[in-house]
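Morning, I've got a small favour to ask if you have a moment. It would help a lot if you went through both lines with me. Thanks so much in advance, here it is.

***
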Amino acid sequence: MRYISTRGDATRKRFCEILLEGLAPDGGLYLPEQYPHLSSTQLEDLRATFVEKGYAHLAFEVLSLFIDDIPADELLALCKKTYTSAVFGSELIAPVRPLADGLFIEALSNGPTLAFKDMAMQMLGSLFEYELSRRGEELNILGATSGDTGSAAEHAMRGKKGIRVFMTSPKGRMSPFQQAQMFSLLDDNIFNIAIAGVFDDCQDIVKAVSNDLEFKRAMRIGTVNSINWARLLAQVVYYFAGYFQVTSKGDGARVSFSVPSGNFGNVCAGHVARMMGLPIEQLVVATNENDVLDEFFKTGRYQVRTSGETHETSSPSMDISKASNFERFIFDLLDRDGDLTRKLFHDEINRLGYFDLSGHAAFKTIQQKFGFVSGKSTHQNRLETIKATQKQFDQIIDPHTADGLKVAREHLQVGTPMVVLETALPIKFASTIVEALGREPSRPSAFEGIESLPKKVIEMGVDVQAVKDFMVKHCA
């Protein structure tokens, strides 16, 4: 398996070459030259692996289709080390629970930071440590978070030999619980940087530093954001696990997934699973008031918003107006035309702030060929969904999952199961739960009093050079 850039660089690289790299040198994102396609027999073999041996073995089988430069026994050991019931609270790792009318929720938030990001980040931490040890090298991770990526990355990397984490986040835009999960980590290899802006400003800083190839190489900079292919690849696995839990052996059923979406990484993993042959009927992109993606799937126009135009909402991890992973899908949509992809994401976005594919023949194939549909949820929608879910099913869901559930209902098809991907446990967004239900959700005992712990964080403006200087200082 070899990997190429979405922007046309013809260099073909192996998995371990791109693992620590993040962006490709031409500014694009890495994707495999082609997706492995599974026959119905191979899918049933994967089902048997999941049922008989568990999630870790399923992860090994899926990842090994994309990774051929880590010996099989060592990759299996990494998967078994990562996906344990002790870490994820369930033998199934990603258990699915039914609601009604063909609706299901796949629980992805029982890891160390109570968010779905743990599903991939724990694997990424294991892969990083393995590869750095093999090379005898160190890595400085620079990331951006709207809430959950940061804490998942820091908890996965804390104490890891040869790794430092520099995590930017938008000052005051995360919930108190999310801030506490990150800022209370006092490990010597963890550095939190609160940026006086929105998530997109943080993401722009990470991209700017990554595009300075001389600085990136000198500082050995890698990324844990969803632009890192290894992280997205690890997310593909739970689509297979979800599918196998709501279908029966040999029935050939198709399943839809509804995915709360901001940076397009989570749902892009579903796109990869579908391209591999997993029988996914619809991939439902659920946005909040920051509806850039919903606008595109409805109109063909991708209009990037400015910081001032990005709404601060009650599902803050989706307060994103520049979807980093969207480029991967557009590359596939345009029949892997790297030159056109570069023109859209580099030239037109930088010059106009948008691109428009409404008149392109490929846009008309989005639903039929790729299964994508979309919808939007507002603050009032998520309050109503949280209330209704608690009343009808005696289950409390977080605001982002509520967005996914609200939009999922709009796209239900008779006879086709719809799996909503849970993104976080409700305690991470307690104020919205209180507003909806009049009471706080339950809190795992390990997180009692987390908001009052000592904090380690530095504040900065939107300043790429200041972030570079901070990294140099703390890597000396």
About this structure: The longest strand covers residues 163-170.
